[in-house]
Here is the input.
Amino acid sequence: MADQTSQASTPAGHGRRVLILGGARSGKSTMAEAMLASAGPVDYVATGHHPGPADPEWDERVRVHVERRPEHWTTTETLDLEAVLGRSVTAPPALIDCLTTWLARIMDDCGAWTGGEDARRALDRRLDSLTEAWRATARRVVAVSNEVGSGIVPATASGRRFRDELGSLNARIAAASEEVWLCVAGIGQRLR
Here is the structure.
């Protein structure tokens, strides 16, 4: 990952927006962490569900991510990415992990899985708000998201809806990013 680690030398706080896409277990989070390894303090923004006894496999994934983080990084668990992105240019770089879990939770909050037109409008407002905040951010930020459009067609309507919404969100964030990377089998390829 020599190319990725060279990105870590970019000074924090220059409004650099980086999106890293990849499949499950592709190495995208590790790549994002490597990009910010020499940045000093980093705000690590976790968007997934909290660990709990109902899902031991999820708990293990969270544990691995937590153990990899340097002690001088600050972890924040939030869905308010707009506030994270709205911090000043002097704020430490942020690593958002990840937009996929953020979207799933936002779709839950909006009732988008089964809701009607009101749910659609609520989801659209949240997606527009995040996209605007991403465009406007003055701080350095690296976001991770899953690339789900290259796989099998989901068997359920909700699965297809999620795949489509995530694909659209990824495209919107990529369009407003200075750098976009695709990580496959632990190898990052810069797309932009």
Remarks:
- The first strand starts at residue 17 and ends at 22.
- The chain has a mean pLDDT of 87.
- The beta strands are 17-22, 43-46, 74-77, 94-97, 141-146, 179-184, 187-190.
